[in-house]
Amino acid sequence: MKPIRIWLIPAGPNPWKAVVILEELGIPYEITSIKFDDVKKAPYTDINPNGRVPAIYDPNTDITLWESGAIIQYLIEQYDTDHKLTYTTLKEKHHLNQWLQFQMSGQGPYYGVAAWFNVLHPEKLPSAIERYNNQLKRVLGVLDGWLETRQWLVGDKMTYADLAFVPWNDRIDSVILCKPEEKFAGFPNVKAWHERMISRPAWKRCMEVREPLMKEQGLDQETGRPTKFKTHQEFEEAVARGENTDP
Prior knowledge:
- This protein is of the alpha+beta class and 247 residues long.
- It contains 11 helices and 4 strands.
- The protein has a 4-stranded mixed sheet with strand order 2-1-3-4, with helices on one face.
- The longest helix is centred in the middle third of the chain and has 31 residues, at 90-120.
């Protein structure tokens, strides 16, 4: 099998949703690591006109895809022939898709906006911070209640739906600026579920791959922006002026 190419910004959580699936299924892949200020312009926008990561190209089927949810579904359908991370029965199959859609429409956007107002926005807006921190906790509450009587979101094994939640949950502390040991405070079932997944070799390999990519671009481990800039606004202004943002 030829390796799948995946384009990513190492700081972003969404690409690692796809990478952990690749790792779990043992699919060979090659990373093209791009800079934040290159994601909105050609040649990357020729691959993904929306200017977001990740995107993949599979030379085995000659298909290019973007949107992490679509990529996950493709990888499962095309390569999880042993159904390691999925089910084929009617109810379970659609319940998996249901939870993936919740991750895409609930967890990702709310956590992302919370990160913006807590960390990246140049002004501190208490009402916005409160709203989106509460939304983040609401999502955790949905998950915690569901996991009260079960180990996994669907069925009796870990699936792609579970794994899709890992990258954003793993960085809650840097999103809402709390202590790492407090990020799941009040949500013990989510904490136990998350720890089951990040203890797996596939996730550990993801983080081993990510670390040198972050260092290569001189990116702050928490905010994701180049360490030479004190604020995200300062970074965006440099990008707008066409300045070199390399470390």
